[in-house]
Amino acid sequence: MKSWTSFSLILTFCGFLIQSALAEEKVSFSDSELALIRSHGPWPVPTNPDPSNRFSGSEEAIRWGEQLFNDTRLSGEGNLSCASCHQQELSFSDGLTRSTGTTKVDRNTIALANLRLNRWFGWAGRSDTLWAQSIHPLLDSREMNATAHIIADRVINYEDLKANYQALIGINPLSESPENLMVNIAKILAAFQETIQTPPSKFDQLRRAVTDGASIETNQAIVRGLKLFVGRGKCSLCHFGPNFTNGEFHDIGLPYFLDNGEVDTGRYGGIELLRKSPYNRAGAYSDEPIQSAENNPSYFMRLQHRNWGEFRVPSLRNVSKTAPYMHNGTLKTLEDVVHHYSTVDIERLHADGETILQPLNLTDQEVEDLVAFLETL
Ligand code: HEC
Ligand code: HEC
User: What is the CATH classification number for the domain harbouring 176?
Assistant: First the structure.
């Protein structure tokens, strides 16, 4: 009996040795995995000014835009600014499940960064420009609860705002229509937001090390996590390229009920709002000189049943700093996110569902590895 116990103890011990040896074994990548890893860089991605916004890239606009971003006078009650929800010390998000303006809103605050790389804005892509996306919180009664008239009044009646407006735009705000004035303020806010960028990360070093053989101090958990990300996890298919997003919309099987039992229609509602909006890129407020079908992204959009419950694939750059996660903020940590993908219920994905997603059934070690990798981004 005694000898059996020690025998099995020895066996367990050997098992442990083998396991930890395996765990420390150097990870190797296939050619297609290496190609995917390469495609997640280089970083930063060079960008051009936004042709739909004539203030894009202007130093003066950027400076005033930053002040306006922090200015509570743009809200109806004079108590909220963009920075109330997009707080710089929290990577321009707010750390809340769902943000609160005059009252609680339906979705999680998106951390603002690298916005020139976006094709669509908001979780449902309701805007096709950054300046149009900047108008919505001004007007939304649950967010800043202002109107074009309120904003025009404030700019006309506060000397500093009036002087800045006159200096930058060259027009006395008194002779502007409130709509024009509000759009100009939104474009100046956009000029500032375009400058918010995430610096190269630990991942960018790792990428060079793996693809060019440069040496790097890193633990194998991170490298195993990277292999899961581009390999069996298939994360790269949607979290694609240097900004870790394909910029499009998918359903990953999260609940989409709101508090009142209504459904958040996601991309479906986003397309409807975008088409109705007077501020879309095809509209009269865009500074783009040519209004042809080719440079109007919404022209090619078709409203499809599959758009119900789809949300935009978020960038994963800086993701360890922007908890909680998902459009409704329901996943608190990166472990929770990885568990979601590990156990995803494919029955929940709607009819024309996602063929990419399958439960990954990850071991505890693999969950840790994938989280360690996400933390390098
Ligand atoms: C009450 C909180 C709140 C305030 C105030 C607020 N935002 Fe937001 N912001 C959000 C939420 C929530 C989202 C996600 C909205 C959605 O997709 O439905 C968001 C999304 C955005 C996005 C989209 C980012 C992306 O990657 O698509 C931009 C840009 C933005 N806000 C800019 C602004 C600006 C500019 C202001 C001030 C004029 C502002 N926000 C004020 C909560 C807020
Ligand atoms: C089918 C496309 C798709 C695949 C594959 C995919 N994702 Fe996602 N991911 C999304 C979408 C869409 C969202 C946002 C969903 C929502 O909010 O409703 C998301 C959200 C996330 C978030 C939250 C980010 C935030 O800021 O809230 C993380 C982290 C994430 N995914 C990591 C991963 C990892 C790791 C994998 C691989 C195991 C993966 N994703 C595979 C589409 C995908």
Answer: 1.10.760.10
Mutate to test the pocket of ligand 2, among 239, 256, 320 (most ligand atoms within 8 A of CB): 239
Domain total in the chain: 2
Which atom of ligand 2 has the smallest separation from the CA of 110?
A: 26
How do residues 345-375 score in pLDDT, each as one tens digit? 877 776 555 678 889 999 999 999 999 999 9
Q: Are residues 66 and 83 in the same domain?
A: yes
Cβ of 116 less than 6 Å from ligand 1: no
- The domain boundary residue, chosen from 193, 209, 230: 193
Residues 157 and 215 in one domain: no
Q: Tell me, what's the pLDDT at 262?
A: 84
Verify whether ligand 1 is closer than 6 Å to residue 65 (CB atom): no
pTM above 0.85, yes or no: yes
From the list 219, 188, 194, the residue with the least C-alpha distance to 206 is: 219
Closest ligand to residue 105's CA: 1
Cβ proximity of 102 and 80 under 8 Å = yes
Which residues span the domain enclosing 78?
Answer: 59-193
Q: Which residues pair with 100 in a beta bridge?
A: 104
- What is the predicted pLDDT for the residue at 312? 97
Instruction: Indicate if the pLDDT at residue 179 is higher than 80.
Output: yes
Q: Looking at the structure, do residues 208 and 177 belong to the same domain, yes or no? A: no
Residue 76 CB–ligand 1 contact under 6 Å: no
d(CA 218, CA 52): 43
Q: Is 203 in the pocket of ligand 2 (CB under 6 A)?
A: no
User: Over the range 305-317, which residues count as b (16 or more CB within 10 Å of their CB) and which as e?
Assistant: ebbbbbbbbbbbb
Q: Which residue has the higher pLDDT, 8 or 34?
A: 34
Pocket flag, ligand 2, residue 337 (CB < 6 Å): yes
